[in-house]
Amino acid sequence: MSDTVRGPAIEAVGLTKTYKSGDTAVEAVRSIDLRVEAGQTYGFLGPNGAGKSTTIEMLCTIRNPTSGTARVGGFDVVRERDQVRRRIGLVFQQQTLDLQLTAEQNLRFHADLYGLGRADAERRIDEVLEMVALADRRSDVVMKFSGGMKRRLEIARGLVHAPQVLFLDEPTIGLDPQTRAAIWDYLHDLRQRTEITVFVTTHYMDEAEHCDRIAIMDHGEIVVEDTPEALKSSIGTDRIALRTDDDEVAIARIRERLGVEAGVHEGQVTIAVPEGAQVVPRLFTELGVHILSVTVTRPSLDDVFMTYTGRTIRDSEGPQGSVFPFAGRR
Amino acid sequence: MTTRDTAPAGTAAPLDLLPEVRSDRAHQLRATWVVTRRELLRLKQDKARMVTMLLQPVLFIFVMGTGLGSIVDTGGGTDFRTFLYPGVLATSVLFTAAFAGISLVWDREFGFLREMMVAPISRASIIWGKCLGGAIVATLQSLVLLALLGTVGIPYSPVLIVELIGCLFLGALLLTALGVLLSTRIKTIQAAMPISQLLIMPMMFLSGSLFPISGLPGWLAVLTHLNPLTYVVQPMRHFTLEHLSLTAAEQERLLPVITWFGWEVPVGVQLGAVAVITLGLVALAARIFRTTE
Predict the structure, then answer these.
(1) How far apart are CA A47 and CA A57, in angstroms?
(2) What is the DSSP string of B186-252?
(3) Buried-most residue among A86, B122, B147, B245 (CB within 10 A)?
(4) What is the DSSP string of A122-161?
């Protein structure tokens, strides 16, 4: 599209941030490597205090790394700060609008700070307001806006200067489910119409499903990085839970006919298999006991997150412990 | 609901739109003006502020001035309110300008500062924009008071009005710079208010705005001479009383010459000194801001 497209949208090598807290040095980010291809939506997950915010702040030129380098949009975040800044849009957790000004005035301020010409600014402001469905509220003072509207306006503002990379730090935090869904609709819409790269942190696992790739960060390090599908597959397997007339017989037949160990958890016969939905018909034909109900559960990103961060490993099999190992089943 | 259908197809070109990197100085000047203009827009949105800020100076002139006028001897026939007027005009920008400067603390608290901090502009343009914007806003708010010139027996001379506006702007810039400087160190709104009061009140009383600085006891005279605001108030009074025919006795009493170690300081030098101090404060604020934010 233009000569500015070159290499990955974000590339970090050995990125490290150390804080001094009294006499001790705290390593907030420990030599992480990142590579985000242009046009991807990249999810950045991790528990609170994992180092996500510090990482995003270094990529956005707000903080300088202690060591390591990062390039965003092809420019070095330390040495070419302003070039990076012109190419990124930012939406913070904390709102950063001027509540006393109108929506349009907020956007115009932004366009001016980023050096847009008058005609470009007019056109972009119209476009982004249209995109987040706030065109009819452009002359309203932002103080009158609801939380969701403010957040939409912030996303619009982050796009006014046509950035190559949009950084969103917890864009849906504190919003109701409908508004959260609407915001993701806008982001999808954006992806379809432009080749923008979106870098988003969230701790809503369902939202991570929207991403092309996910990195999970913990204790200042990236513990795993892959597509959502691959991550879910990596921890294995679907879970099938069934209620039967005779659990003893069911367990025996499952072992004998399907070659799978089954256990009883919370009053249900439970097995772990790679493709749950394909196994269900065989249960009916081969068990020879009366089946009252069957539930197939796919592994969620919640499971992935818990597995890799290990903070609170939730055992999805119930209190007795796991009958299937989380990792390495396929 | 969805805008997908209505949006122009041309939006798929985000990269073409990037503004070319302008000459740095031009962009920083423009950024300064953008930050300045925001202060003006905010004033426009907040008309209540314009009105309430006028109340105090009007009270000073007409209530305090009239009340004290009966017991104060001006040394001749001059109304005490005529004497008081330029001083009160100066104090009116004192408050509005200092608060405009302190508003940087609000910007930080409510998040908007971050929007400015991550933009491709220098920290200095944020500070200069805040200072100039605050000073213009404070000057504009005081303009209404100029309409009262006639009510205290001062002629509506265009030259005088221009001189007064110039002094008001300089004084406003001084106080805004001081407010911004405080804001670079003070991080909470709770602390900002009392600390700014602590600074403003002595500056007001020690500038000779409300009483003549002739015949003050030594310690008070020293403090008055150290207060930069004195060099805004005295020139304003000088310009105002110039237009009236004062007797020699009144001149000496109401408009004493300011001396530095025996040297009679001309009005121009007084204003020049204020300008230098103001520039120093802005530069200091910009420096602290750059290293701490």
Answers:
(1) 17
(2) ---HHHHHHHHHHHHHHHHHTTTSSS--TT--HHHHHHHHH-TTHHHHHHHHHHHHHTS---HHHHH
(3) A86
(4) HHHHHHHHHHTT-GGGTTSBGGGS-HHHHHHHHHHHHHTT
Note the pLDDT tens digit of each residue in A94-143.
Answer: 889 999 999 999 999 999 999 898 899 999 999 999 988 899 999 999 99
Strand A41-45 with A24-36, pairing: unpaired
Does residue B129 contact residue B32 with C-beta atoms inside 8 Å? yes
CB A88 within 8 A of CB A73: yes
List CB contacts (< 8 A) between B12 and chain A.
Answer: 193-195
What's the CA gap between A116 and B101, in Å, rounded? 28
Angle made by CA atoms A195, A201, A202, in degrees to the nearest 5? 120
Q: Is B29 on the interface with A (CB under 8 A)?
A: no
Place of tokens 């499971």: A303
The pLDDT of residue B107: 94
Q: Test B119 with A185 for CB contact under 8 angstroms.
A: no
Tell me if A162 and B2 make a contact (CB, 8 A cut-off).
no
- How many CB atoms are closer than 10 A to CB B72? 14
Note whether B114 contacts A: Cβ–Cβ < 8 A: yes
Give the nearest partner residue to B34 out of A87, A112, A164, using CB atoms: A112
Core vs surface per residue B129-160: b (16+ CB within 10 A) or e: bbbbbbbbbbbbbbeebbebbeebebeeeeeb
Longest dimension (CA), chain B: 82
Please, how many CA atoms are within 13 Å of residue B114, restricted to the half-sphere of its CB? 19
Tokens of B134: 């605050």
Query: CA of A216, closest CA in chain B: separation in Å?
Result: 26
**For tokens 């913070």, what's the residue?**
A92
Averaged over A281-285, what is the pLDDT?
A: 86
DSSP reduced 3-state for A94: coil
CA distance A214 to A154: 24
Do the Cβ atoms of A33 and A16 come closer than 8 Å?
Answer: no
Residue pLDDT, tens place only, B63-116? 888 888 888 877 777 888 888 999 999 998 998 899 999 999 999 999 999 999
State how far Cα B23 lies from the chain centre: 31
Compute the distance between CA of residue B278 and CA of residue B223 in angstroms, rounded to an integer: 19
Alpha carbon B130 to its chain's center: 12
Residue B13's nearest CA partner among A40, A83, A5, A195 is A195
User: At a CB cut-off of 8 Å and minimum separation 6, what does B33 contact?
Assistant: B129
Q: Among partner residues A86, A130, A133, which is closest to B1 by beta-carbon distance?
A: A133
Q: Which among A199, A223, A194 is positioned nearest to A211, based on CA atoms? A: A199
Is the pTM higher than 0.90? Answer: no
